[in-house]
Specification:
heterodimer, A: mainly alpha, 8 helices, B: mainly alpha, flat
C-alpha cells in the first residue's frame, strides 16, 4: 500500500496519495486509447484485443503505483501507450506460437519474468471480473461483500435475505463462479 | 468430501479460520495434491480481486469507458471544436468593434470646423447601466414533492429539479406466460434485465454504488437486443440510463420506442420529454414539442401532467 504521507511530492511522482491514482489512470486511458487501437488494428488485432490490452495495462499500472514501483517522469498516457505497444508484440508472438510443439521448459519449472507475471495476473483478474459480472446477483454481491470482509449477517441484512440463506448460497455461488472460470477457454493459457 | 465441503474448507483456510491441526492437514494436502493446489490458488486470486473494491471499480469503469470510447472521444472533440469556433467568433467580433472605433476616431479627429467630440460622450456610458436582479430568478431545490406543487428552476438552464418531481420509475413486471402462446414466454434477457433493474431500485438509497453497477449491467445486457424484444429492451434500457443520469442516451432510447407505434409510445414520449428537460437549455424545444403532442393527442394518463409541465416551463 502506498503511504499517505502528505509530504510526498505531487506532480509526476506518483508515489502520491492512492486516492489520486484512479482519475490519473482514467485520463491516461482517454489520452492513449485511440493510438493503442490504431496500433493494434494495424498489427493484426481487433478492437476487442485493444480493449483487453488497455484494460490489462491499467491494472498493471494500478498495481505498480500501489507497490510504489512506478515513477513517471512523463505523461501517463504516453507511458500507458508504451507498455501497451510492448505487450501487444508479446501477445502477437504468443498467438503465432499457438499449439506448436516446442522444446519449451514445462510450466512448473518455468521462471516468469516479473513484468510478464504482472500481465498474466492482470489477464486473470480481467477474466475473474468478467465472470463475476456474468454471474448475476445476488451471487456476485455475496461473493464481493464476503471477500471485502463484510460479515455474512450484514450481507444478509443488506441484501434482504436470511442469514441461513446467505450461508448456504455462498458456496454455491463460489462453485458457479469457479466453474465459469474453468470452462472459459482462456483459463488454461493463463495459469 | 463433496464439492461444497471442499469449497467451505478452502474458504476457511484462506480466511484463517482453521485450527492448527486442520490447517496442517490442509497444507499437507496442498503440497501433495497439485490439482487441489491449483484450486486453492484460484480461490485465493478470486478473493484478492473480489475483495479489492478499487480494482473492481477501476476495471468496470475502464471497461465501460472503452466500450463507449468512440462516442466519448467524438463528443469531446466536438466540444473542443465548438469551443474553438466560439473563441474565433468572439475574436472576430472584438476585432470588428476595434476597427469601427478606430474608423470613427479617425473621422472625428480629422481637421474640421466643428469642435472634436470626446469619445466618452459618443459611446453609451457603461456607468449608466445598472444590473437589476431579476426577481423571478429563484434557485430550484431538489425535491421529491409530488407534481402540482410550485417548483421553479433557473431560466435558460435545465429543469432537473422540476423533472425529478415528475419522474416516477414505472413498475416493471415481466410479461406473463400465457398458455398456448409460446411467443408470450418472457425472453430470458428481458427477464434478467427486469430482475436487475428491480434490484437496483431496491438498493438505490442503501447501496447507491451497487445500484449503479446493477443499472450498468442492465444497460450492457440490453445492448444489441434481438428484434423480437427490441422495443421492450430499449424502453427498459432507457429507464436504467435515466437512473444513471445519462439523459442523452436515455432520450435516444426513448426516441426509438416512440418512433414506432406501440403500447408504450406515449410513456416513451413522456419520459423522453423529461430527459430533454434534464439536459441543457437547447433541448427544451424538443421537450416542449413532445409535451404538446401528449397534451393535444389521444387521451392518456400523461395528458394532464403534460399540460401542467408545459405551463410551468413556459412561465419561465
Amino acid at each position: 500500500m502506498l503511504s499517505n504521507d502528505p509530504s510526498a511530492k505531487q506532480g509526476n511522482d506518483f508515489r502520491a496519495m492512492p486516492e489520486s491514482e484512479s482519475p490519473m489512470l482514467i485520463q491516461a486511458t482517454e489520452e492513449c486509447w485511440k493510438a493503442v487501437m490504431a496500433h493494434v488494428l494495424a498489427n493484426g488485432g481487433t478492437r476487442a484485443d485493444a480493449e483487453d490490452l488497455v484494460h490489462d495495462a491499467i491494472l498493471v499500472m494500478h498495481n505498480r503505483i500501489r507497490k510504489s514501483s512506478l515513477k513517471l517522469t512523463g505523461s501517463p498516457g504516453a507511458y500507458l501507450f508504451g507498455i501497451c505497444k510492448n505487450e501487444w508484440l508479446h501477445r502477437l508472438r504468443e498467438k503465432k506460437r499457438g499449439n506448436l510443439v516446442t522444446n519449451q521448459i514445462p510450466v512448473e519449472y518455468r521462471v516468469e519474468h516479473p513484468a510478464e507475471a504482472e500481465w498474466r495476473l492482470a489477464e486473470r483478474y480481467r477474466l475473474y471480473i468478467e465472470k463475476l459480472d456474468t454471474l448475476g446477483d445476488p451471487c456476485r454481491l455475496i461473493i464481493e461483500l464476503d471477500c471485502q470482509k463484510v460479515p455474512l449477517k450484514e450481507i444478509a441484512r443488506m441484501l434482504n435475505y436470511t442469514y441461513e440463506y446467505i450461508r448456504h448460497k455462498k458456496p454455491d455461488c463460489i462453485a458457479k463462479l469457479t466453474s465459469l472460470i474453468r470452462q472459459d477457454p482462456r483459463f488454461n493459457g493463463l495459469i | 468430501m463433496n464439492d461444497i465441503q471442499k469449497i467451505d474448507w478452502i474458504e476457511q483456510y484462506l480466511k484463517g479460520e482453521l485450527e492448527e491441526k486442520e490447517k496442517a492437514r490442509f497444507e499437507a494436502t496442498y503440497h501433495t495434491n497439485p490439482e487441489f493446489a491449483r484450486e486453492v490458488d484460484l480461490h485465493r486470486e478470486i478473493r484478492e480481486v473480489a475483495g479489492d473494491k478499487r480494482t473492481l471499480e477501476l476495471s468496470r469503469h475502464v471497461r465501460t469507458m472503452l466500450q463507449k470510447a468512440d462516442v466519448v472521444s467524438e463528443v469531446s472533440s466536438k466540444k473542443r471544436h465548438i469551443q474553438t469556433l466560439s473563441f474565433r467568433f468572439f475574436f472576430a467580433i472584438a476585432a470588428a468593434i476595434t476597427l469601427i472605433i478606430a474608423t470613427v476616431y479617425w473621422f472625428v479627429s480629422s481637421p474640421s470646423d466643428q469642435p472634436a467630440v470626446p469619445i466618452a460622450n459618443q459611446l453609451p456610458s457603461i456607468q449608466d447601466q445598472t444590473l437589476k436582479p431579476d426577481v423571478s430568478d429563484t434557485l430550484a431545490t431538489p425535491s421529491s414533492e409530488k407534481p402540482g406543487k410550485q417548483i421553479t428552476s433557473v431560466p435558460g438552464k435545465n429543469f432537473l429539479a422540476l423533472v425529478e418531481a415528475y419522474y416516477r420509475s414505472p413498475a416493471f413486471t415481466p410479461p406473463e406466460v400465457r398458455r398456448g402462446e409460446a411467443d408470450r414466454i418472457p425472453h430470458p434477457i428481458i427477464q434478467q434485465a427486469y430482475e436487475k433493474y428491480s434490484e437496483a431500485l431496491k438498493f438505490k438509497d442503501a447501496a447507491p454504488r451497487q445500484s449503479s453497477e446493477l443499472l450498468r449491467e442492465v444497460v450492457l445486457l440490453l445492448t444489441s437486443p434481438p428484434d423480437s424484444i427490441s422495443l421492450m429492451a430499449h424502453y427498459l434500457r432507457a429507464h436504467a440510463r435515466y437512473q444513471l443520469r445519462e439523459f442523452e442516451a436515455a432520450a435516444s432510447d426513448f426516441q426509438i420506442v416512440y418512433s414506432t407505434e406501440n403500447p408504450q409510445s406515449i410513456d416513451a414520449k413522456w419520459y423522453g420529454a423529461l430527459c430533454f428537460l434534464s439536459m441543457e437549455g437547447r433541448k427544451n424545444a424538443q421537450a416542449k414539442q413532445l409535451l404538446r403532442e401528449i397534451a393535444e393527442g389521444k387521451p392518456s394518463d400523461y395528458m394532464n401532467r403534460a399540460r401542467e409541465l408545459l405551463a410551468k416551463i413556459q412561465s419561465q
